[in-house]
Amino acid sequence: xxxxxxxxxxxxxxxxxxxxxxxxxxxxxxxxxxxxxxxxxxxxxxxxxxxxxxxxxxxxxxxxxxxxxxxxxxxxxxxxxxxxxxxxxxxxxxxxxxxxxxxxxxxxxxxxxxxxxxxxxxxxxxxxxxxxxxxxxxxxxxxxxxxxxxxxxxxxxxx
Length: 159
Known about the structure:
It is built from three helices and nine strands, in the order H-E-H-E-E-E-E-E-E-E-H-E. By secondary structure, it is an alpha+beta fold. A hairpin with a 2-residue loop joins strand 3 and strand 4 (79-86). The radius of gyration is 16 Å and the shape is globular. The N and C termini lie far apart (40 Å).
């Protein structure tokens, strides 16, 4: 047995489980109210599946928006498949949960950021739960061209 409890990896697993549960609810019942998601993922992940032209355009990471039009949302234990519209071209994607870097629902100012070794050299397993900045929410929603919503630490809201 290890000499330490790996809280970072346990948190990653729990937060990816939360994303899995949310997406399964959307697959079963659709997006409720004004909920929508910005999901940034690592396109280099070995299990990520996307069209060659998308991988060429986004060689490291890509942010997708699930809002008005998505189809064929299917969840499995390791990730999810969805068809999204790219310039009037439906494209199927498979996104492993381990490839997700950020998950944001700006409609309720909720977001998760998964830190990696590149983000934090000291501890690659630290999980930061983030919330979108209320001041920047409107500008993030106005522009789908800026799909990676600004996120800040919850500590900034504490007194």
